[in-house]
Amino acid sequence: MDLAQRVGQLLMIDNPTTSVSSTTVAAVQHQHVGSVILDGNSLAGLAVTRGVTSSLENANPSRAALFMATDQEGGQVQRLKGTGFTVIPSAAQQGRLAPAALQGEATAWGRQLHDAGVNVDLGPVLDTVPAGFGSNPPIGNLEREYGHSPAAVTSHGLAFAAGLRAAGVAATAKHFPGLGRVRGNTDTTAGVTDAVTTAADPYLAPFEAAVKAGVPFVMMSTAVYTKIDPKNPAAFSSRIVTGLLRGTLGYDGVVISDDLGQAKQVAAWPIGDRAVNFIAAGGDMVLTVDASQAPAMASALIDRAQRDPAFGAQVDAAALRVLEAKQAQGLLS
Q: Which of 3.40.50.2300, 3.40.50.300, 3.30.470.20, 3.20.20.300 would CATH assign to domain 7-328?
């Protein structure tokens, strides 16, 4: 792969759940984008979703098949519904099941995704919202937590991930290092800050367990964690991505960002800088829910890699991790 093709493997861009976007197809073909997120809620059912994913893959010129992702957590965050898809209960409800039972359910949900051509689920949520915390817009208010203790979140989050793995779908532990103790949603609010979490926090336990279990993806939060790195959102923090996640926790899989496209938390940064900052911090895959940003992000990454050999080495290492993850799922030909 040349540099442009390697950079393309570092991008995940959106496509509607019910149709094929010409903007997405153009990015796959011209910016060599290697991953797509099906974004937006659909009631169209499995067959229609399969048609969308098949059309996108047919447009892909690379010998590396696309990672095709969506948010299929359950409850209020279930993108794909309709004929062929089970209505999935919220994580809060899933947390009331025995872990073994949840794993079996997650395997069935994962098989539906696999049959629809989706090979990455952007879940489980491993954020812990303490009991009695009050309003927690990104997680607790939407019942996205498996329980109110790290132990409960660990047992049920890992059961969900294991079920997906049994179905041939890659799981994504999110949102590192945790959104369970913030008062704002990074998608809709700027200045979201966690003033509690430390680099040795007990609320990191679910993520540490997921790393030990070999979860293939970890998603970075874009909140600022003042007790770890007060200057940078987590996704732009080498102290958090490289130092804490890769170093202290020993993670060697794919690190993906939370949305860097339309999230208010990162709106102050130029589009290209968002991609560069994430890769520079040690990340691997830049997620944007605005496919029209792919040219700007790819251009910025290529330009920086050409000017900065150290950054170029980070690009190469990230592309290799993405391709190794694709190989593990049989997506390389």
A: 3.20.20.300
